[in-house]
Each structure stands twice: as C-alpha cells, then as structure tokens.
Amino acid sequence: MRCVYGLTLAMVFALSACVTPTPEGETEQVSEQVRELAAPGQDLMQVRLESDGCYWYRYEGPVETTFLPLLTRDDRMICVRAPAS
Q: Would you put residue 71 in left (φ > 0), alpha (ψ -120 to 50) or beta?
C-alpha cells in the first residue's frame, strides 16, 4: 500500500511543472498518468484543470450537467498541486 501511495505522489509531483488552469468554458486532453490514476466511471473526454490545481470532469446527470472532481480509485482528488486551505 505504501508503494502505491508513494507512486501516486510521485506522479502528481511530476504533473505539477508549469500548471495553468484550463480557460473558462474549455476542456483539455488529460495525460496518460492522469488516466492511470482516475477511477473508472468518470468521463475523461471532458476534463479541465481548475484554479485550485485539481482536475474536474464533466458529469451529465439526470437533472443537470456539472463538473465534479476527478477522483482516484481510493476517492482522492487528482491535483497537480495541493489545494489552498
């Protein structure tokens, strides 16, 4: 378990070089590292990097369409830098 956690942290830090949020109203292609971290069932075709440093994906629900945090299999947000507290 520690090895997986360490590998996840290493991948996130590798992603953190030159972080620029996705422009409003646009989405971007996610890297292979982010695809490997993401839990199944999330739409990786419409993802954006928010100003909090975390990836969010477009969720089309029965009532509304909104962006939700992109999560790992263990329900952690996928971020390229730590969110501000």
A: beta
